[in-house]
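Trying the structure run again after the queue cleared.
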Amino acid sequence: MKKHLSTIILSILLLIASLSSLFLGVLEMNVSGLLSGNLEQIETLLISRLPRLLAILCTGIGLSVAGLIMQQLCMNKFVSPSTGATISSAQLGILVALLFMPNSTLWSRAFFAFIAAILGTWLFVWFIQKITFKEAVMVPLVGIMFGNVIGGITSFLSYKYEMTQALSTWLVGSFSTILRGQYELVYLTVPLVIIAFIFANHFNIVGMGKDFSQNLGVSYNTVLFMGLTIAAVLTASVVVVVGAISYIGLIVPNLIAMFKGDKIQGTLIDTALFGALFVLVCDMIGRTVIAPYELPIELIVGILGSILFIGLLFYRLKNGRKSIRLGNASNNTSCCNCTPKLEEN
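Done. Tokens:
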């Protein structure tokens, strides 16, 4: 029971926040009205509130697990979909779909986003494997610069072909437009997270290095590319439906690792639960700060995430490997602040 206490607490908090979220909004909705069969409230629940809640939960789970996988495979706690060019690549893929297929469906845009996100993530990891860094923080900085280059190409193409307004939907994450029939793509997070959990031990082994993986009979390149592909598809599925949301894949896995260590199989469920809870709380804040108007989720997450990121940055640089040795996490063995072919401290 003590081992799973954090999971139980996060589950209870997520359940309470989810129920509260259903009754938060401009249109009044209450339990008595739903039980009495009020048609307007039932339609509001089924068409707007429930789809929005499911999209929020899938977004938090997807981005958090994607960040956890990328951090383990890259052996660097500052790598995430936002610092590994995955989100920027997905946006470029959406723009390409809009340019060549103006009448494309959601799934058509998603296909281009998947391909672009996978290629962008693979290219980033290949690049950092070819360069020896002296500081762990250099890896996300390179990823941010690489993402900005991709973002610059996206901006150039959008201005050149007058697609800026059409692309703006995917530049800033928001749940305000989520309705039934427009969000179901994020359900892809469920089977992908299950696959990630099944191969969690393989990701841990690959995270120890190529030689270590080969000695244990694990195909390093196969598992590496599979893990990066899962992370890229998780991220792209969220970007296509909701838009870009930064920091989730960076902050959430780090906070969980501080208390439970770096072993994916032991932290994946808590990471998914806390990611969903974090996004849900940020969304509720955005809906109440200037009610009845709503702030984009990207704004709230950006403010809180940037503060937490600065704190984590100083904490990681100060404590290094000790930063994951809290509580019962001392039995987990994994490199927390190095990159492939990185430092040997």
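The first helix runs from residue 5 to 22. Worth checking whether this holds up in the mutant runs.
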